[in-house]
Write a structure and sequence with these properties.
- The protein is mainly α.
- It has one domain.
- Helix content is about 70%, strand content about 0%.
- The chain has seven helices and no strands.
- Helix 4 runs antiparallel to helix 5, helix 4 runs antiparallel to helix 7 and helix 6 runs antiparallel to helix 7.
- The longest helix has 21 residues.
- The structure holds zinc ion.
- Zinc ion binds next to helix 2 and helix 4.
């Protein structure tokens, strides 16, 4: 979910507002992946579970997307993904360092290790469950 208020805030950012919007969308699509493949039941085993691990999964996969994009377009401002995720979500999503670390790990999974999406999704689950 991306509301108009958030969209306006992102578009008002002084640097790479378009990439900031893409970062949020990549994070949200990662949540959809976690629901569609059933990983959400491991990430948040009960309705009372903290969403932290699900958020770490989504941040990791957002970073993965940034890494894939950077491979295609070397000038892609991938660092915006880490700064954008750190600005939003509140304490349930983790602090800025935790969020940045998840984005960075996902980025490296794509950019250096060049994992395919299915392998990256499994790696994201392992990462999130280890946090
Ligand atoms: Zn989220």
């Amino acid at each position: 979910m991306l509301g108009l208020k958030l969209l306006k805030e992102l578009l008002a950012l002084p640097e790479h507002p378009d990439a900031a919007v893409v970062a949020v969308c990549a994070h949200e699509f990662a949540h959809i992946v976690s629901y569609s493949n059933g990983y959400i039941s491991q990430l948040t085993p009960t309705p009372q579970s903290s969403p932290f691990r699900a958020e770490q999964f989504a941040d990791y996969m957002a970073g993965y997307f940034a890494g894939r994009r950077k491979l295609d377009r070397p000038d892609f401002p991938a660092a915006v993904f880490a700064t954008t995720t750190g600005m939003y979500g509140g304490y349930t999503h983790g602090n800025a360092k935790q969020r940045g670390d998840a984005v960075q790990e996902g980025f490296l999974c794509a950019y250096r290790r060049k994992l395919e999406p299915q392998a990256a999704i499994k790696r994201a689950l392992q990462f999130a469950l280890s946090e």
